[in-house]
């Protein structure tokens, strides 16, 4: 029986979703193989709740004591969205303790969390991404310069945040500054992207015994202007799995997803979002620690593939990197 720390909490706007994801992971870990403990990280402090008593985890060795017994961990299941897991800040801590984890390493996480640099890297590798512009907080906003590059309408989003916090769709030049200021609430850098008009889809991917496997594709149809927080978590969207696209395009996107996973050196369960315009997939973003809540896309795709979350989670823990 292996002890698994399910890491949750964090410092970002995705805190609440991380808690829900961790609970899903705990519910679906195979109890014959794993003993799961939800480890909560907040303000640089790890805690675990045992029989309604909060116990602090010793940061020097990532262990804790309960009923005169010292509990240590065989692996970390990353269920913490945003900082400090999805941006790669926490991984070196576990690397130093030689505890394997189910997410990408620090370098890959930092790159994928930085949307602008990630898109740049993807383009260098020959993948399709939207035209983009990076605005930094200390710079002046030159609206016309931005519009000349990305055109209208465009999307304005924090360069390093998830769950669609601080994202705006801008249709008029006079709304651009307001949208940038909204994104600045979540990050000091703002990504302004060309609007790609098409079908929004998402494809999960994971490693199973060193084989990269893509999950069924989900089509996202939102009542809102785009797939924002409300659409993701408050039922303002329809998520259709499998997506209503041709078999040929389905195979192409699944192969593209596994190619990206390999080329970007991803690990664990990831999700890659796309827009299909004129039968051509454009990468929106790479989610290295996607949501596992009951409303999240990955559980829907796992169900559609006639798989069980417990099996997927087990394969990620077996393949977790030190």
List keywords for this structure.
alpha+beta; 5-stranded antiparallel sheet; 322 residues; Rossmann fold; Dna Ligase, domain 1; D-amino Acid Aminotransferase, Chain A, domain 1; single chain
Can I get a quick summary?
Helices cover 29% and strands 30% of the residues. By secondary structure, it is an alpha+beta fold.
Strand order of the largest sheet: 4-3-2-1-7
Can you identify the CATH superfamily of the largest domain? Answer: ATP-grasp fold, B domain
Low-confidence stretches: 227-233
What's the number of domains? 3
Average pLDDT, all residues: 91
How large, in whole angstroms, is the Cα Rg? 20 Å
Determine the N-to-C terminus distance.
19 Å
Main sheet record: 5 strands, mixed
Shape: globular
Helix content, binned percent = 25-40%
Which structural class should the secondary elements be placed in?
alpha+beta
Describe, in plain words, how this protein is organized in 3D.
- This protein has 322 residues and is an alpha+beta fold.
- It has 3 domains: 101 residues, 3-Layer(aba) Sandwich (Rossmann fold), CATH 3.40.50.20; 141 residues, D-amino Acid Aminotransferase, Chain A, domain 1 (2-Layer Sandwich); 63 residues, Dna Ligase, domain 1, CATH 3.30.1490.
- It is 29% helix and 30% strand.
- Strands 4-3-2-1-7 form a 5-stranded mixed sheet, with helices on one face. It has a 5-stranded antiparallel sheet with strand order 14-13-12-15-16. Strands 8-11-9-10 form a 4-stranded antiparallel sheet.
- The longest helix is centred in the C-terminal third of the chain and has 17 residues.
């Amino acid at each position: 029986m292996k002890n698994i720390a399910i890491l949750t909490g964090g410092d970002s706007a995705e805190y609440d979703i991380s808690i829900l994801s961790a609970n899903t992971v705990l519910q679906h870990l195979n109890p014959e193989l794993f003993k799961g403990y939800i480890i909560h990280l907040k303000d640089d402090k790890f805690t675990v709740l045992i029989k309604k008593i909060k116990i602090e985890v010793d940061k020097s060795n990532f262990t804790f004591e309960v009923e005169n017994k010292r509990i240590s961990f065989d692996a970390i299941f990353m269920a913490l969205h945003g900082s400090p897991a999805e941006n790669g800040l926490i991984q070196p801590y576990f690397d130093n303790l030689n505890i394997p984890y189910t997410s990408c390493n620090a370098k890959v996480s930092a790159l994928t969390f930085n949307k602008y640099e990630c898109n740049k890297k993807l383009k260098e590798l020959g993948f399709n991404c939207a035209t983009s512009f990076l605005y930094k907080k200390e710079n002046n906003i030159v609206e016309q310069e931005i519009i000349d590059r990305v055109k209208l309408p465009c999307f304005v989003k924090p360069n390093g945040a998830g769950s669609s916090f601080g994202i705006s769709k801008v249709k008029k030049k006079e709304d651009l500054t307001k949208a940038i200021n909204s994104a600045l609430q979540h990050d000091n850098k703002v990504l302004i992207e060309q609007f790609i008009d098409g079908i929004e889809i998402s494809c999960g991917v994971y490693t199973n015994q060193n084989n990269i496997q893509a999950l069924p594709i989900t089509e996202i149809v939102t009542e809102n202007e785009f797939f924002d927080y409300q659409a993701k978590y408050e039922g303002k969207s329809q998520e259709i799995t499998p997506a209503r696209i041709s078999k040929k395009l389905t195979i192409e996107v699944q192969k593209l997803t596994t190619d990206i996973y390999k080329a970007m050196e991803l690990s664990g369960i990831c999700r890659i979002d796309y827009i299909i315009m004129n039968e051509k997939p454009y990468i929106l973003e790479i989610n290295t620690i996607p949501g596992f809540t009951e409303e999240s896309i990955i559980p829907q795709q796992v169900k559609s593939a006639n798989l069980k979350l417990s099996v997927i989670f087990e394969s990620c823990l077996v393949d977790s990197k030190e």
